[in-house]
Amino acid sequence: MEKTDKKLTFKHYIIIGSMLFGMFFGAGNLIFPIHLGQLAGGHWLTAGLGFLLTGTLLPLLGIIAISITRSTGIYDLAKPIGHRYASFFMILTCATLGPLFATPRTATTPFQISIATHISASQEPWYLLGYSLIFFLLAGFFSRKPTGIVDAIGKILNPAFLILLAIIFGIAFTNPMGSASSAHITSDYQNGALLNGFLQGYNTMDALAALLFGIVVVTSIRSFGQNKPSSIAKTAAKSSLLSIALEAFIYLVLIWIGATSLTHFKISADGGIAFSQIANHFMGLPGEIILAVMATLTCLTTAVGLLTSFAEALHEKFPKISYKSWDMISCIASFLIANIGLEQIIAWSTPMLMFLYPLAITLIILSIASPLFNRDPIVYRLTTIFTIIPALIDALNSVPAIISEQGFAQQILKWDQMYLPFAKYGMDWLLPALIGLLAGLIIHYVQPSIKRSKLKTE
After folding, report:
1. Where are the alpha helices (DSSP H) in 318-406?
2. What SS3 state is found at 362?
3. Residues 6+ apart with CB under 8 A from 284
4. pLDDT of residue 254
5. pLDDT on residue 415
6. 261 near 271, Cβ under 8 Å?
7. What is each CA distance from 124 to 27, 28, 138, 227, in whole angstroms?
């Protein structure tokens, strides 16, 4: 018999909301809205709304999906599609949030903010090598035997970082760099600002993080006396109002600042450089130094969390390899990949995200809607089968030119543009996914009636 739910106080909602904010807010993600603002220019608000859909709303839906299905994690959530697929999706997500992209980015982002703008291009590889070596030696040391020290530092640094952002925002509002509405709009954002903003939100990787770590939030909600899946989902939704509002405000202001910065700066290669330039413009060298130190420390705590989570998840799945071995593998791989530089990490992570995000989006929607079709595997499988091929083509379309301009790739992309709607926007998976969902639902609802009619005739 299921326990009755306890009534939560406002304090409980604040605690859960703070946990959600702490999980998804990070210095590393702040470079993307600034860069988006520079790209979108006068269409900054439209692009910003698209960014918020994938950057703030989708992660919340991921946590709601875990609570509704009572899943213990990403593997359990994807299990209706098949055990092999669930393992494949979990490993790929762990690798993306771990040593392939997210963890190396924790070193390259503060490097771009703190050092890259003050050295020549020829010096950059050597400085990055030294910086990332020290960074991952520290991250590896703290992650080999996790303690509360790093968490405690993170709890102090995140509020301090918010105060620094508030100061920059205050100066930006009272003394803006220029007009955002009249800022130059790049070609991709002339007519497709909303969709491009939506796709840029993939870079936060927060929806993937929600699927991987959302069980932590769900467990915390249960500890407050919420037991029914519907109650947990409602509590997560209510608690997130404050955290989503704050995160959305931060993102939108950064996008606006990015757009206004075009009066003084050219579009930067990445948001890290732009962030450093903007901090220097508003607060001078002292402000830039404070930003650099805080970005480094907050990203270091994030790196420790990612290394720990990767090692724990893979050790649980493959227990023959120890936690420390997985941690070392992740640390060494992250260090090596970090040295290709932030711009290249973003360039190569884009195709992976273009592949993973459609699968994550459909999995989240299916999980939330699963009570309507009793979590029938046929609905999950057909939707995923119809989604995975277009998602692969989207990934191919976004890989660097060395691959995407090859003859075989051009043939596939030409076919894609001809036959699949929204292909030019990177959303060609949408219609096939809907077809797969519809086919799955038809089979789910028709099969029982066919079985009943057979029984009557026998």
Report:
1. 323-338, 342-369, 377-398, 401-404
2. helix
3. none
4. 94
5. 83
6. no
7. 22, 20, 21, 53
Contact 410, 393 (CB under 8 A): no
SS percent in the chain: helix, strand, coil, step 5: 85, 0, 15
The residue written with tokens 């009534």 in the block is 7
pLDDT tens column, 234-274: 888 888 777 888 889 999 999 999 999 999 999 988 888 89
Q: How far is CA 381 from the centre of its chain?
A: 24
Interior/surface letters 133-143, b for 16+ CB within 10 angstroms, e for the rest: eebbeebbebb
- Which phi-psi region, left, alpha or beta, contains residue 267 (left: φ > 0; alpha: ψ -120 to 50)? beta
CATH T-level assignment (fold) for domain 10-339: Hydantoin permease (1.10.4160)
Amino acid identity for residue 390 in this structure:
P
Q: Where are the domains of the chain?
A: 10-339, 372-458
Residue numbers in the chain where pLDDT is lower than 70? 1-5, 27, 146-155, 449-458
Tell me which amino acid residue 224 is: F
Burial, 3: exposed, middle or buried (Cβ in 10 Å; 0-12, 13-18, 19+)? Answer: exposed
The whole-angstrom separation of Cα 365 and Cα 47 is: 23
Q: Which amino acid would we find at residue 337?
A: I
pLDDT digits (tens, 9 = 90+) for 23-82: 777 767 888 999 999 999 999 999 999 999 999 999 989 988 988 888 888 899 999 999
Q: pTM (2 decimals)?
A: 0.89
In terms of Cβ atoms closer than 10 Å to its own Cβ (0-12, 13-18, 19+), residue 309 is buried
Q: What does DSSP assign to residue 120?
A: -
Nearest to 384 by CA among 81, 48, 98: 81
The radius of gyration of the chain's CA atoms, rounded to the nearest angstrom, is 23
In this structure, what token pair is assigned to residue 364?
Answer: 């989240």
Question: In the numeric block, which tokens belong to residue 414?
Answer: 């030409």
Using CA atoms, how far residue 256 sits from 177, 198, 238, 344, in Å, is 10, 16, 28, 25
